[in-house]
Amino acid sequence: MAPTGARKAKQAARPVRRAFQRFLLEEGIVSSDVLIAALFLRHRYGGRLEDRLATRTTDRARLSRGLARYHGISFLDPLTDPPEVALVDELDPAYCLREALLPWRRLGAATVVLVARPEEFELHRAMLTQAYGPVLPAYAEPEAIETALLAICGPDLAIRAEGRVPRGLSCRGWSPGQYRRPFLLSCLALFIALAVWPAILLTALTLWVTFTLAAVVALKAVAAVAGYHDALPPRRALGVSQLPTVSIMVALHREADIAPRLVDRLSCLDYPRDRLEVLLVVEEHDRLTREALAKADLPGWMRVVAVPHGTVKTKPRALNHALDQCRGSIIGVYDAEDAPDPDQISRVVQRFHDSPPETVCLQGRLDYYNPKTNGIARCFTMEYASWFRLILPGYDRLRLAVPLGGTTLFFRREALDSLGGWDAWNVTEDADLGLRLARRGWRTEVIETVTEEEACCRALPWIRQRSRWIKGYMMTWGAHMREPEKLWRDLGAWRFIGVQVQFLGTATQNLFAPVLWSLWPIAFGFWHPIVDILPHQWIVGMTVLFVSAQAIDLTIAAIGLRRSRHPFSPIWLPVLMVYHMMAVPAAWKALWEIVTRPFYWDKTAHGLFG
Questions:
Q1: Disulfide engineering: 452 pairs with which of 41, 369, 584, 605, CB 3.0-4.6 Å?
Q2: Which residues, 6 or more positions from 417, have their beta carbon under 8 angstroms from its beta carbon?
Q3: What share of the chain is helix, strand, coil (3-state, %, to 5)?
């Protein structure tokens, strides 16, 4: 049988690889031990032999000069001999970073272009010739090309990453100074009213909080019922040749300890390596994480992307910067501590293939791999079980906006580009993105695949993390409600009302839950100011509502827990009532930060429990 085209190409490539390896040894560029170690790493992790050698040798300059000599081109260092800025400005810097090339100098009629992958230069020659005329390649180390590009284009790239979302839908116009005085005056007016008309004010506040409680609980109950049964689209066969390239972005910040575990976990993904790339997105000045990744023997399908310094330092800004360097038609997002199901990417690709074009986002289910660390971890696990296994799928079935989780997200590339990516100024960028998807009429589906992550199970870090989430919900609601009529037109009446309950109702409950707690003593015969104002029937009805709300919450949590991977004893369910009390200080911290430092990203530490 005649060999296939792929086998012919493989056979033809073998002599070239042998010649290159012999060249390295005969020229004394690397030792045999280094070469053997690099060959082993390439066999195990894939990628280019040159990159594996670079991580093993102690003389990078000698290796770089040898590589240039092997390819018959010059070796140049753009850090000691900088490029002409005008030349760099003629190309898209994101393209240059993605392809590891750098227009350097004009020499006569030709332009010298530095490349880190000389074997791929011919793929770019036509485009480069159109831009510069005749071009000549020269070799430079990939890190040097990236550093030189960021030195020249870093500010422009940072501005691009921070301003992709239109100002009318972004939080970047939020000026804390302009809200500080109204906030303080409102607080002063509230205290005066509380002193002069305490009973009336408390009654009005109680009625509002009770109304939002009824709306929030009713929506959760309806969503839980709607999301109880999984609805799968008809499955259509997807051949290997139809598999798209998938780009996964993982934003890292001060994650030096977790880097090796992250590589191991993502290496378990079973999607074909030639159609998968993982971008480890790191702030340019985060030297500890970048050094840890440099020592981690990254697989060939993983690469580090440095994010230039900007006005804000947030996860969505980092994702926006890396988005331009992704090669895939499907874009995914993971967190640093994630451990996804091995077949997750395959499931995502199949689901996109089976779904209609308006389904542009898939949300995987999140779970925890340390649910029994302590009571907070158990409660967090129950909360996530009900959220990702019942409520979010229910929002989708009810055609409501789906507030996305920050990880295990997958998008059709065209839709994400059309939206402008993430709002770099929103500290809960995932929920905001879910709302902007809904405003376009697009759909988010929750798929039957699980990513495990680490539960934040210490009280103060939990409050800080939850305060960031609540602050983002508040700011998202405020940004989209700048033009409520337009939001109504975009969403329609049903989804508009849903947004008010999901965002405003949730914020109200977190801020003013103590108002409702103060009513519990009425059931035991104690006096309360509202008893003298509201009819007795209202008091009875409110009591029934409070008890029903707790019962519905615990029932949803119990069902979600049964459907999760951690069916531990339901005796923990009542602890949820105490657990949710921690959201109150988190909400007030969030409200205070909105008027003091709205763009502050209170980072959650990872890698403590697994």
A1: 369
A2: 323
A3: 60, 10, 30
Closest CA to 114 of 153, 51, 150, 68: 68
Task: Supply the angle between the helices 287-294 and 259-266 in degrees, to the nearest 10.
Answer: 50
Instruction: Kindly give the pairing relationship between strand 276-283 and strand 246-252.
Output: parallel
pLDDT tens column, 88-143: 988 999 999 999 999 999 988 899 999 999 989 999 999 999 999 999 999 999 98
Burial of 157 (0-12, 13-18, 19+ CB in 10 A): buried
What percent of the chain is modeled with pLDDT above 90?
55
User: How far apart are the C-alpha atoms of 288 and 296, rounded to whole Å?
Assistant: 12
Structure tokens belonging to residue 142: 């990939």
Q: How many angstroms separate the CA atoms of 279 and 381, rounded?
A: 28
Distances (CA, A) of 250 to 268, 320, 336, 466, 533: 15, 12, 6, 21, 55
Q: How far apart are CA 265 and CA 452, in angstroms?
A: 10
Determine the topology of domain 74-162 in CATH.
GMP Synthetase; Chain A, domain 3 (3.30.300)
SS (H, E, C) 399-448: CCCCCCCCCCEEEEHHHHHHHCCCCCCCCCHHHHHHHHHHHCCCEEEEEE
For the chain, list residues with pLDDT below 50.
Answer: 1-17
Q: Which ranges constitute the DSSP H helices of 457-602?
A: 459-480, 484-499, 506-517, 536-563, 575-579, 583-594
> How does strand 443-453 pair with strand 359-368?
parallel
- DSSP 8-state symbol, 242: G
Q: Where are the domains of the chain?
A: 18-71, 74-162
> What local confidence, expressed as pLDDT, does residue 607 receive?
56
Q: Could you tell me if 493 and 501 are in contact, meaning their C-beta atoms sit under 8 angstroms apart?
A: no
* d(C-alpha 340, C-alpha 276), whole Å: 15
Distance, in Å, from the CA atom of 470 to the CA atom of 586, rounded to the nearest integer, reads 8
